[in-house]
Amino acid sequence: LPEFDLLSRGDGLALVWLSARTIEGGFDGIMVQGLTAAGAVDGEPAMLQGTFDVEAVSAAWVPQGQGMVVYTRGRQGAGGVFAQPISTTGALTEAPVQLSAAASVSPAVAAGDEGTWGVAWLDRSSENPGDLLFQVVDDFGEPFDDANRQADAGAQGEVELAFGRGTYAVGWARVDGLGTMTTLVTLYDTAGDVLASPIIDGPQGFGTVTDVAWLEPDTFGIAWQDYDDGRVTVGLTRVTTRGQVTEPLRLPIEAGHHQRGLVVTGSAAMVTVFVANDPMPPRESGFSTEARLMSGPLGPCR
Are 94 and 66 spatial neighbours (Cβ–Cβ below 8 Å)? Predict the structure, then answer.
């Protein structure tokens, strides 16, 4: 699947994506393109040299400020994790910083309090592959301290990350000794220390986190999907900055349909959701030609 992020810069947008060279030319690696609020190209794209072997990329931007791109290099992340600051104009004014030399996957980044960024990833080289790591870096991508490691986490799939009210929330999933997938959210303070790590109620069977969003004034929305009883469904669980987990909400679904890739935005009073709905899901992985993107409001959420 394509790797890209479309971000708000406050007065415009930034598109970050993995580019591939063709026989006609082009660039292999990460590119950053500024866009106007109307979606028109704004300036020349920035090309991150030496990123031809990147497998996964995540980006965040501070409105009217700078951006940060985090990525893994090498096959299955064998080349480690890097942070690349992007200036307010979209230019590359600093060299990338290597945060880890270990084989790593699923990088994620979120803008924190002024001048700080939270970065999360999974360490594939750990004794029990899938240690969850979290680190706070400055505007230059330089860490303030060693990464916080959750050893023997056995994390699987993707990591999702958001920030709000002095708290970072990392959504992830792991497989327990019985082979059951468990979804969790780990909360960190601005120093990178763990505040809480509650289990997310809701998913049944094989469950994974698909999005984590900050919902004003004091809540994170944890979007998840699961595979149970032969179909894929999605839902939303809310977690406060104090680690209190609310009752999950599973989106209604018609018989025979599958839902995938739920993402959320908004506030605790009113959440907007986006989800892919497929009335004719193929037996193999993927979507049918009848799949459609659907959106709608959920609220009030208290």
Answer: no
For residue 76, give the 3-state DSSP assignment.
helix
pTM of whole model > 0.85?
yes
User: For residue 283, is it within any domain?
Assistant: no
The residue type at 282: P
Q: Which residues of 29-60 are buried (b: 16+ CB within 10 A; e: fewer)?
A: bbbbbbbeeeeeebeeebebeebeebbbbbbb
Please give the backbone phi and psi of residue 83, each rounded to the nearest 5 degrees, phi first: -120, 130
Residue written as tokens 């992340």?
Answer: 77
Provide the domain limits for residue 203. Answer: 4-222
Q: Is 190 left (phi over 0), alpha (psi -120 to 50) or beta?
A: alpha
3-state secondary structure of 139: coil
- Amino acid 216 reads E
3-state secondary structure 148-178: EEECCCCEEEEEEEEEECCEEEEEEEEECCC
Provide the H-helix boundaries in the chain: none
At 22, which amino acid appears? T
The CATH number linked to 114 is 2.120.10.10
Q: Which token pair is 282? A: 């193929």
- Quote the number of domains for the chain: 1
Residue 211 lies in a domain: yes
CA dihedral 83, 53, 19, 273 (to 10 degrees): -60
Bridge partners (DSSP) listed for residue 22: 25
pLDDT, tens only, 19-59: 988 777 789 999 999 999 999 999 999 999 999 999 899 99
Residue 286 included in any domain: no
Residue 74 in domain? yes
List the structure tokens of 23.
């026989």
Q: 53-89: per-residue pLDDT in tens?
A: 998 999 999 988 999 999 999 887 889 999 999 998 8
Question: Phi then psi for 75, rounded to 5 degrees?
Answer: -60, 125
What the block records as the tokens of 48 is 């991150």
